[in-house]
Amino acid sequence: MSKVRVLVGTRKGAFILESDGKREKWDVSGPHFAGWEIYHLKGSPVDPNRLYASQTSGWFGQVIQRSNDGGKTWEIPGGGPQPGPGSMPSGTSNKFVYDESAETGKPLTTHQWYDGTQHSWEFKRVWHLEPSLTDPNSVYAGVEDAALFRSTDGAQSWHELAGLRGHGTGPRWQPGAGGMCLHTVILDPSDPGRIYIAISAAGAFRTDDGGLTWKPINRGLHSEYIPEPTAEVGHCVHHVAMHPSRPGVLFMQKHWDVMRSDDAGDNWHEVSGNLPTDFGFVIDVHAHEPETVYVVPIKSDGEHYPPEGKLRVYRSRTGGNEWEALTEGLPQSNCYVNVLRDAMAVDALDSCGVYFGTTGGQVYGSSDAGNNWTPIVRDLPAVLSVEVQTLP
Amino acid sequence: MIRVILPPHLRTLAHVGAELQLDVEGPATQRSVLDALEARYPMLCGTIRDQVTQQRRPFLRFFACEEDLSHEPPDAPLPDVVASGAEPLIILGAIAGG
User: How buried is A361 (Cβ within 10 angstroms: 0-12 exposed, 13-18 middle, 19+ buried)?
Assistant: First the structure.
């Protein structure tokens, strides 16, 4: 029988939740990396036992962890003593150095600060790790301050895909409340050269040549909170989701507005429809129904909790515009948690499972595509990210 | 032999106890001790000083003999009692965050 492994990153460590295909009883392991912020952990689609984790701390900076046994044990890539002269340098798995060379893109060195002045790029942390679809040793890292890095040696060393910052709009990017983070990395399964990324607050970008050159894909976005609401860049995109069977169709939860693109991001249109509020962070797509989309509406940017104190997942079976509230098993009074941008994921079992984590430490799961929910765990530290692996 | 005391999270990261001992080549300075520490425990690279600038991370301080050495030049000699191993070099995390 198939199994499901849910990878949970929290403010104070990582947790791994495992169940068989019934998804009724769960084994919880953790905290791994207790006391550290785990922004994200994710498994390789090629080798599900190969996991990568982003471990960060305001005191000690960034650490990258790797597991080869599905999270039972972890290692820092290159964290052991250097075995001999000429071997791979040790201790560089957390060395994220911005590439400022003219040969590889001549990236601009400043972005806009909160007060409108220019500010130097400074590495702070890894927000998102996206393992390659074909090679377990290749993985992308979306970082703050916004940039995309790639490792091809199992996260021992990292190199920036500098064309993203090199394409010219960098001085107009600015940090959102959480920092200027590159939080979304989507690899197109049908085209190895195509990658989508999203930055808060710059917008969405796409490369069609494996990361050498990039272009903003924000036409159709409208953001009242920036001086030029339809600007090419500057939009606070919270998350983007894609169904692997239709890689040209994208769904976006923006700071305000739920958006859809049917042409790989070249044009967007709003599909917020009847949502009670179109502010929110997460968005995801059903594993088998590419027109079934999930969001968790949040009241507003000033009040990061559900409207009316009711935690409701909204599902559209029509690719947006028409949404239904899913409430069975979710608290419908006095609930004031948030659901952060990387904290929702789906499994690939026949009856699609949907999972999300809250800042109140609950991880909710549904084994019937959202009709009914149960808390898998209730009292974790604030959840930063949720990923799911469907295992044979 | 130099004695070093790490903050708890870095002990976990390096799989060591509260205090560790290092052989340091040449004069004992902050730089030479950190070089030796990172060579022996590469997982600590970047956690005490920045990977690129080599600047001490802002929420960490260096103490020895009840004195704050955090703002001493990195190549300044450490106190003789630290160089001799009589007293440890203490790497301390700021009490911040509640």
Answer: buried
CA distance linking residue A72 with residue A76, whole number of Å: 14
**Which pair of tokens denotes residue A343?**
């904290």
Give the mutation candidate from A12, A54, A60, A99 for the B interface (greatest B CB count, under 10 A).
A60
Dump pLDDT digits (tens) for A112-167: 999 989 999 999 999 999 999 999 999 999 999 999 999 999 999 999 999 999 88
> Tokens at residue A348, please?
């690939």
Q: Give a yes or no: residue B17 inside a domain.
A: yes
Distance CA B27, CA A267 (A): 63
Contact A63 B13 (CB under 8 A): yes
Q: Which residue of A has its CA nearest to B49?
A: A60
CB A31 within 8 A of CB A48: no
What are A330's strand-pairing partners?
A: none
User: Bridge-partner residues for B60, per DSSP?
Assistant: B93
Q: Where are the alpha helices (DSSP H) in A274-337?
A: none
Following DSSP, what letter does each residue of B16-36 receive, concatenated? --SEEEE---SS-BHHHHHHH
Within 10 angstroms of residue A310's Cβ, the number of other Cβ atoms is 16
B84 within a domain of the structure (yes/no): yes
Q: Does residue B98 belong to any structural domain of this protein?
A: no
Could you tell me the pTM of the whole model?
0.96
ipTM above 0.95, yes or no: no
- For the record, the structure tokens of A12 come out as 């104070």
End-to-end CA distance of chain B: 36
How far is the first Cα of chain A from the last one, in angstroms, to the nearest whole number?
Answer: 7
Residue B51 at interface with chain A, using a CB cutoff of 8 Å: yes
Cα-only R_g, chain B: 12
Q: For A87-235, where are the alpha helices, taking DSSP H only?
A: 163-166
Distance to chain A for B57, nearest Cα, Å:
7
Alpha helix (H) ranges present in A155-201? 163-166
Q: Which two tokens stand for residue B35?
A: 């070089």
* CATH code at position B18: 3.10.20.30
Q: What is the pLDDT along chain B (98 residues), one digit of tens a residue?
A: 999 999 999 999 999 998 999 999 899 999 999 999 999 999 999 999 999 899 999 999 999 999 999 999 999 999 999 999 999 999 999 876 55
Number of domains in chain B: 1
- Residue A381, token pair as written in the block: 């530290």
Q: Which residues pair with A252 in a beta bridge?
A: A240, A259
Its domain, for residue B71, covers 2-93
Minimal Cα–Cα distance from B87 to chain A, Å?
A: 24
- What is the residue type of B26? G
